[in-house]
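Bug #77: duplicate submission created two jobs. Keeping one. Sequence:
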Amino acid sequence: MRNYRYSLALSSLLLVGAGSAFGQVLPPAPGTPPAPAAPAPPPAVPAPAKSVPYGAGMKVNLSPDGSKYLRFIGWAQAWAQYNENNSNTLRVGVPKNDQLAFSIRRARLITLAQLNPRFLLLLDLGMENQTAVSGGTPNDPNGPGHRAPFYVHEAVGEYRVNKYLSVGGGLNFQVGISRMSAASTATMLAYDIPVVNFPTLDQTDQFGFYTGFYAKGRVGGFDYRLAVDEPFLPSQANTPATVRTNVAAFYPRNSNKIYQGYFDYEFLDKESNLLPFTTGTYLGTKRVFNIGAGFHYNAAGMFSRPAAFTGTAPADPFTIPFRTHDIKLFGADVFYDAPIDTASNTAVTFYGVYYNYNFGPNYVRNAGVNNPGTSIAPPTGFTGATNLYGNALPLIGTGQTLYAQLGLLLPKKLLGPKAKLQPYVAYLHNNLEGLRNPDGTIKGVNVYDAGLNLYLDGHNAKFTLNYRARPDFSDQSFIPANNGQATVNSVNYRPEVTLQAQVYL
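Kept job's structure:
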């Protein structure tokens, strides 16, 4: 009975406590009501994220550790160029002494995939050299500059045998001759490549890329690449009936394999060789000193007609006597890129290369990048090259070439914490067998460039302003007594100013 009374009393106390907590309403205290509560402060606005270095770029990891991934790389370069044209230049039939022209130099997109530590897939798509007068889809009914083809540059599958050797095949860029023959056009020191580094451009290659198989790797500081490739067929318009006497041209029936390679020794920091593209300037982030040499050989890749031909061409023009010539190309180069003062982020970049090219007798190739002209109005009695209009000049041929460039990265605080300036100079000298002075000596080709890079975010966002003193070789003639050599009567230098805008992701 006593326990029952204790239980009843305890239950009553719990009910009273519960009523106080959940059900009891207390009347307000007499007097002035309390002031309303202060409003809650608004949530803080997050600070914008600090910009970080771009690093590996657009990379999608397909495994937690990042060993399997997709990576995307892209860049675009637009040109505004003032050009004083070579003599007698026409733009669609209208004489033009000078021009201001806008164009797209390059637009590229690379996809890199690694789904296994030993296997790599590389796909490179893009377009180049679209101007208002050229670079469009061939035979486009709306005009020659419309709808530039976006085509495959590189399509490669690669297998890593071991840490010293990788092998691959496809449409590739594992080329020989020199470092600059595999240049990355997104990290160049100068505004553009000198073109002489691509000696078979769009003849036996596809814009510098070849179809074949390769081996590459590194042993200590020794880096190498070797390739065996199938030559693309060059222009079928060149036959023994159409070429100049004793002037070599690419052989349209060539079926011999191309053998090429490049070797260098890296004395300081080691460079990545995952991709085939070589860096032009590291902007003080590495210490690189490399010496290299390379070659390119294609048996019977050229042909020439040794004697004059007159009359009607036979049904098979290759019944006319001709001879073939091996393509033998060699190069040796040096590359140095290093910081001068790490505190101020100053750096120096130097590249120098020597080329020795043999394409056969008197071969000279004239070319002008994004040429604003379309043809030449030859004066009476003219017998010279008809493709030296606009900004074209003799860039490639049988003979010897020296090319060098030097750049200096200025202190980082000169334009604030991010922007950087890098002035540079470049020089190209060609000694080509097919170009002669009136006295018979070789007429040298000298091209001078000076420019300034403005880096807003490294190579990812930059502007380049370049001044070029370009030699005008249009005043020349072919005299039969010279046996295929062009006599250069005079050379005038023309100014060329290019502003390039680049975005690289």
